[in-house]
Amino acid sequence: MNKNSWQIALAYMSVVIGGGFASGNEVLQFFTGYGIAGVAGSVVSAVLFAFLGMQIARISSIMQAGSHKQVLYIIFGKQAGFVVDLILSFFLYGVGVVMLAGAGSTLAQQFGLDPLVGSVLMTVLVIGTLCLNVKGIINLISAVMPFLLILVLAIMVYSIVTSTGSTEELNQAATEVPVITFLGAEVSHWALSGLLYASFNIAVGFPMLAVIGGLTKSPRAAGRGGVVGGLGLGFLIILLSIGLFANLDKLQGIEIPTLMLAQNIHPWLAVLLSLALVAMIYSTAVGMFFAFSARFAAPETKRFKVLSAIFTVVGLGLSQVGFTKLVGTVYPMLGVVGLVLIIAIAASWIRTRKRSTEELAKEAQSRI
């Protein structure tokens, strides 16, 4: 693993983890409601994250892509890729809005601030960051990952070890957790929920992962970074799933479950985690608004900066709907787009797995 591989892995994890993941809100809705079986669902997501991360980064590196649009055109063809790009961009904007709401909820739960205060603060930070160059944005996103990783690991391990609830009690508590809905209906099986979780998260991570992969000369190094990032994500999901289930009797009605667990350990740990959550929400928000704005203007141009500011401010207004409601509404719909991506990426892998890098590069150039 070289420096580029590690950068891809960390940036991939940072963009996907974001506010819903690291807060435990997503994991609670997608896995914990199925009881102990939800842990198996998190394993399904882990395997998919590793495979999809490898393929996206590798394809992007082969064609030296400058945006996710180019990768979509390779996977789907130009016309279908254009349609998928439009739909994906719309839902990515929705995820950016969710992140602004998540910042408000985190600071409200920890510090008692009005949710609007946290959302406004995050809006200002996102706009300021989008005025940087692309490499500067990637470096900032990658830098915040190790701190949160260590913190969440410590909190989850401690919470699992000190859990006092019996399996029967915890499974009973799980029946009171509303599971995720998809196309208007509750998802009835943990395996399908695991698939949907990977599908909407890969849709979230796809644009930034495609850009980072395109900055890497070696497809092999890019693929390794995608695999390591995906496995890291999978490990965190599994750990979060176990930790939340083990303490489910204490988490009913809580919007930021990991923050509550940190508070139970020590108030100062909760303060540290709240700051780390804001940092992760920030990294995902930047990634989403960057990808959306890049759809309409070239990054680093004046037009891009103006549009980024406008889109983010509009997102601030939309974020006032509420964090949990937005997670349960936007993410399942984004899952449809992600499912289409998973199928197309798998088909591309089957079609090209025995071909050389040179052959794939020539095909990529002919299809753009």
TrEMBL record:
InterPro entries, per database record: YkvI-like
Transmembrane domains' residue ranges: 34-59, 80-103, 115-133, 140-161, 195-215, 227-248, 268-292, 304-323, 329-350
Alphabetically ordered keywords of this record: Membrane, Transmembrane, Transmembrane helix
Listed name of the protein: Uncharacterized membrane protein YkvI
Lineage, top ranks: Bacteria, Pseudomonadati, Pseudomonadota, Gammaproteobacteria, Pseudomonadales
